[in-house]
Write a structure and sequence with these properties.
Helix content is 16%, strand content 43%. The chain has 552 residues and is an alpha+beta fold. The longest helix has 20 residues, at 2-21. Residues 209-224 have a biased composition (Pro residues).
């Protein structure tokens, strides 16, 4: 795992060498923050590898280089427009970029083509030399054409280059985006494992010319034998507990004169042994949400074996809608643990290491929310079912009782509380669209308001914990299909006039054809032409049947 993290860091460092160090241009790093970055390589989420690699590489970038940072897919799950230039290109931006990367949420799509285009425009690529470094673990998911974009940017740019790091992509997947780099004179780096990275380095970096042979140095005096390792830390959840060797992390920093963290040296995982240069360090031991740090001094010829006590336990949560029901994988589990800056959110069955103390766990399934406070002692494991207490409802609309199910467009379901407020309105609970709409609801009396085009029907129902039910709403409606050749507008009216002689308009379309579900009954249909002339026809719609009318 550590090797892979270093490999990805080396890949990014390669790009920093080929663009940052030797070209007097501005650079924007684009990081893929789509949901696929939660996938793991050797037990470590790819997003964490990317964050740590950025932190390591940016420390080696000269302070006067103007580096910017852009991300996509970090704010909305299904949006192809979720692209943001978070840090504009500027000198000394390393800290701002690493802070921005650490705060990203990884949940959206992969609009990589649009992101590269926006980055190029932000760099004024048609006026100045510009470089974009794209780090992605997936292919375009928003209908963009990276190959065509590469040709466009190369043709219209002053000196534009796009370097692409394919993070965890297969060779075939890499070929689909390598054209973006090839078409702009950039490099494509395959960062799937250390061996592949070495091959990429061999293909893209020319070996330096050999330097003149130095004068022979005097033979140094023999040094005393060094131990194989001079730093061998141990982490435990509680005093006297077994060492933690799986899923944990070690962060090594140079110590400043005041004892605080200085430059990062490395981040390693699991059981850790190392040879560190003599000096003072700050070591951070992490496991899950628990961490502890201490200052360690490395002395020549001696082995440091510090012990890190995390004072933490393991919490396992099984979110269930009702007692005995299966775990809901989509259930949101928010754990507000002691000393948390921001409560952590998980989904489905959750197992994590937390600082000892009272853990406030909030589970949400549909519209049901429940919170519990669970005491957790250091070194202990607590496994608990949390019952949210909801029933499951599937809603459908039918034109007639026992007839066809409405399954086209224009179908919507809104759920409100059955009990009216003092002003006669009801509290809205939730809504959904389309057939087979699903709801998880706390026990209560509700009203389902079903809409199919112009037909609207209310149906009360009751929810009990653990109950599964199909709510079938009979719309008592048919389908009216209207054709009006040459019309600019078609409008449907009730045939009965009110006391003022006006008829109620039910729906209209600016077209020569109009089709909609409508309650059974008699209707008048008016077609209007662009010359303000109009024609009228009448029609009777029967429940569960299709009525066709031509007005001309």
């Amino acid at each position: 795992m550590a090797g892979l993290a270093r490999s990805v860091a080396a890949a990014i460092l390669l790009l920093s060498m080929t663009t940052f160090g030797f070209a007097a241009n501005k650079v924007i790093i684009i990081l893929d923050a789509s949901g696929s970055m939660w996938a793991q390589i050797d037990g470590k989420p790819k997003l964490e590898i990317a964050r740590e690699s950025l932190r390591t590489v940016l420390q080696s970038v000269p302070a006067d280089d103007e580096i910017g940072f852009m991300a996509y897919g970090h704010r909305e799950k299904g949006s192809c427009d979720d692209i943001q230039l978070i840090v504009p290109p500027q000198a000394g931006s390393a800290s701002a970029i690493t802070d921005a990367a650490d705060s990203l949420k990884f949940l959206g799509k992969t609009p990589l083509t649009a992101a590269v285009k926006q980055a190029a425009e932000a760099l004024k690529y048609t006026e100045d030399k510009a470089t974009v470094v794209l780090i992605t673990d997936g292919l375009e998911t928003c209908d963009g054409d990276p190959c065509a974009l590469g040709r466009e940017l190369e043709a219209s740019g002053v000196d534009f280059t796009a370097d692409v790091v394919g993070f965890g992509l297969t060779a075939d997947e890499g070929k689909q985006i390598a054209c973006l780099a090839d078409n702009t004179g950039g490099k494509y780096i395959q960062a799937s494992d250390e061996r592949a990275l070495q091959e990429a380095l061999a293909e893209t970096v020319a070996a330096p010319s050999p330097a003149p042979a130095p004068e022979p140095a005097p033979t140094p005096a023999p040094e005393p034998a060094k131990p194989e390792f001079n730093f061998m830390p141990t982490a435990v959840l509680a005093e006297g507990g077994d060492p933690v060797i799986d899923g944990n992390a070690w962060e090594v920093y140079k110590a400043k004169s005041d004892g605080t963290r200085g430059d990062s040296v490395t981040t390693e995982y699991g059981a850790y042994k190392a040879n560190l240069e003599p000096g003072e360090y700050v070591i951070v031991a992490r496991d899950g949400e628990a961490k502890v740090e201490q200052k360690v001094k490395i002395e020549a010829g001696q082995v440091a074996k510090p012990l890190f006590t995390l004072n933490a336990g393991t919490l396992v949560i099984h979110p269930r809608p009702s007692a005995g029901a299966d775990v809901v994988d989509g259930a949101a589990v928010v754990i507000d643990y002691p000393s948390a800056d921001n409560p952590a959110t998980y989904y489905g069955t959750t197992k994590t290491v937390l600082p000892a103390g009272d853990e406030k766990v909030t589970v949400t399934i549909g519209q049901g929310v429940v919170s519990e406070t669970i005491p957790l002692a250091a070194g202990k494991t607590v496994e608990k079912d949390i019952i949210v207490g909801v029933g499951h409802v599937v809603a459908n609309a039918y034109y007639t009782a026992g007839g066809d199910k409405a399954d086209g467009s224009g179908i919507g379901f809104k759920i409100v509380k059955a009990k009216k407020k003092i002003d006669g309105t009801r509290d809205e609970v939730t809504y959904a669209y389309g057939p087979d709409s699903k709801f998880d609801l706390p026990p209560d009396d509700y009203v389902l308001i079903a809409t199919v085009d112009l037909a609207v029907v209310e149906q009360p129902f009751n929810v009990k914990v653990g109950e599964f039910q199909d709510v079938k709403v009979t719309m008592n409606a048919g389908v009216l299909a209207i054709t009006a050749p040459g019309a600019s507008k078609i409008e449907i009216f009730e045939t009965k006039k009110d006391i003022n002689g006006n008829r109620k308009s039910l729906g209209y379309a600016y077209d020569q054809k109009y089709q909609a579900a409508i309650p059974a009954g008699d209707y008048a249909v008016v077609s209007e032409k662009s010359d303000n002339s109009s024609k009228e026809g009448t029609v009777t719609v029967k429940a569960g049947e299709r009525a066709e009318l031509t007005v001309q």
